[in-house]
Write a structure and sequence with these properties.
single chain; alpha+beta; endopeptidase fold (from Nostoc punctiforme); Helix Hairpins; 7-stranded antiparallel β-sheet
Amino acid sequence: MKQRTPRLVDKYCLTKTVTILAGVLFMLGFMLAPSGSAQGASVSELEKQKQDLQNQVAQNQKLAQQKQAEANKLSSQIDSLSGDIDKAQNQINQTSGQITQANSDISQTQGQIDDTKKKLDIENKKLNSTIVELYRATNKATYRSTLMLLLSSSDIAAATEGGTQLTVLQEQIDEGITKIETLKAEFEKQKITQQTKKDELEQLKNQQESQRRSVQSQQNYKNSLLGMTVEQQKEYLAIVDKLQGEHSRVSDQIYAERQKQLISGRESLSGGSSGYPYTAIDVPDEWNFLTRECTSYVAWYWNVRLGKRWYNTQPGRGSAKYWPEIARTLGYSVTSTPRVGAIISFNGPLFDGDQWGHVAIVEAVNGNGTLDVSEYNWVEYSYSYRRNVTPSGYGSYSYIY
């Protein structure tokens, strides 16, 4: 009965939506109510139920979009956190490599320290033996034999004998010990520096690991939220499917009730061929109405069959209830007197709760005051021809010609 047009024309779009949590129980109760409660309902009551469903769907469409936006935002944040985690792990790996190198350097320096200790031990033993020999210098034979065992270098062999040789030897040993102790001190200082660096690296690694754990915790939380959001969407969409099924059932019952009523049996209804060319449903036609709706059929009838100019002059207000307004913008009369070929515009409560209205073509004006009309979407998305229609039985109406 209604004209549903696309955006920028007169779009009435029944879209898939989800329900808000606060209204879930209410909607489930409504949807699961015994079917018999609607079977005895009047057309106007059924129309109200249908409109309530449409309102619920429209209201919760924003929630569906919000949930999708939340999911997209969470996914983007998770991707960003994954990058932060990878970056932190790379830093940890790099620091771990530096720590490994520092340990290697410390081990190498410790080996050098150990080597210098061994050398010092050897030199100290030499020095001690030399000092002992100085006291034995009075016994020449004993001195010479002991000295030759102690020293084998050509330098010492070439030195002067007696106390002079031992003195030279002591001085050389003292000098060697000084050099070795200096070297050992340098190694120990170097080890302290390396150990300090290692400790700093260990501290840095701990900080980096703490940061990575923090980011990982954030990502786990975001993943949890994303999972909840996706599950909520699934639940909402499942409820939407049920709502749409209920909407279709109520719509079918409305059409069935209209056909049964036929104004207390005085009307008769038939189908047949009208010549209306469109087969697709709710696609914009060349006059900016939606195909296989009542408005598209009447626009086609006037433009093609009667050669009268008629199109949607009010994008967003092209539904049948607004046709008297469109008529005035196109220079046509709106009257209460019927005429063959005129458009009859119904605006009563039997037409989508007075939300959209209905239009038809007057095919005959009968002597008893009834009309014959041709129309689309009295029987859902189909052509029909009704005879002996009493317009006042459907509430307010007017004629356009």
